[in-house]
Amino acid sequence: MATLLNGICTTNKEIDIISGTGALKLGTSASANITTIGNVTGATAVNINTGTAGSTITTTNGIFTVSTGTGVITIGGTTAAINIGTNSTNAKTINIGQTAGTVNDTINIGNGATSSVPTINIGTTPTTGGASIQIGSFNASGSGVVNIYSGSNGTNIQSRSGITITAGTSMSITSNNATLNIDSGTGALNLSATGANITTIGNVTGATAVNINTGTAGSTITTTNGIFTLATGTGTVTVSGDATANAINIATGGGVKTVVLGSTNTTSSVTINTGSGGITIPSFTTTGALVSTSAGLITDATASTTGFILASNGSSTAPSFQSMSSLGGFTWNNTTGSTQTMAVNNGYVSNDGATLVTFTLPATAAVLQRVSIQGAGSGLWTIAQNAGQTIHSNYVSTTTGVTGTVSSTNQYDSIDLICITANTDFAVRSIGGNVNFV
After folding, report:
1. How many Cβ atoms are within 10 Å of 157's Cβ, its own excluded?
2. Closest by CA position to 405, among listed 380, 378, 422, 429
3. Same domain, 314 and 338
4. SS3 23
5. Could you tell me if 340 and 315 are in contact, meaning their C-beta atoms sit under 8 angstroms apart?
6. What single string gives the DSSP state of each residue in 324-362?
7. Co-location of 337 and 430 in the same domain
8. 74-129 confidence digits (pLDDT tens)
9. Is 392 a residue whose pLDDT tops 60?
10. How many domains does the chain have?
11. CA dist 171 to 13, 134, 165, 193, Å?
12. Which of 68, 85, 248, 291 has its CA 20 to 30 A from that of 5?
């Protein structure tokens, strides 16, 4: 084949260079040279067509540049597949758009004007090794925007080992009034899992709702410093507001906890509603009443003896159930035995049928404390005294000591006595019927 050193030129005529079945080589000498096809200054076109064997462009230093100035570069104008950086197992860096400069590039991949639906694969062919794919610039001083749009079928992002999305100052994922699903399959879904940050779910300014649904495994919210705050401004906080019959556990773990309900603000209120099941406090095992101690603690007061009442023991002691007599009140008792030692501030119905009932004055009594007897049984009643005691009336007194007595003479006789000298002297306040002093 002849070598031309100057040029081949024709005026408006076609030039055909054909090698038959042999190779056609341009600029293949060992020396460095520049091979130019087409006129870069005129409105000319260069077409390179290949048959089924395809076309391969190989460079020694790994750099292949296609530049059109202000023109348009089109790759893949047919229905065939377009592969970029897929023909070896070597790691590659694929850059689309300039890596330096101040102008803004517009890059369209698969931007067809027809109704066809292109399939675009970037870094998907290698079976070994990984593809490093970068879209857009992360230059802090840049103002670039990366938009990813999809049609009605949506956008799927899948990863074998996880997906990391890093934003400089802020990041927004907007579904444009459609449903936004973030699904990790059977893996864990972590939101803001590292670093000191604030994670916000839902719009705090709009009339929006946030629903967190869990399956049978439930939902756990854990904080490192032990503080979990649920605030709604002027709204209502509802826990288990549905009609399902289930248990609600608050602070039920094994550790010691302080549970606070309501605010100490003087206008705050706490309402606890319960149905027929009532309220159960397992640590309170006695039947009585709930009372508060001087430290503000709630405890239980045992009801104890029938007829006792809940009474205050002063500002520094919890209330307790006490007898009426111990509080200065008066308690009546039905006596059905033959003997009864009387207690101060108690009255007795003598009710042992035909048997005489012997009542003995209390050995200890304070001034103003009382005892009374009302006859009922036909066996009548008598009052015995302790050593040093005397019963006085307007007209007669008993013998001082254990030999002195006061006795009824009729079935329904009654007597009311009041202590006038501590432990020793009692005076008659009233007598019903005829009684006998000894």
Report:
1. 7
2. 380
3. no
4. coil
5. no
6. TGGGT--EEEEE-SSEEE--TTEEEEE--TTS-EEEE--
7. yes
8. 766 566 666 776 666 666 676 666 656 566 666 666 655 555 666 666 666 555 65
9. yes
10. 2
11. 60, 18, 9, 16
12. 68
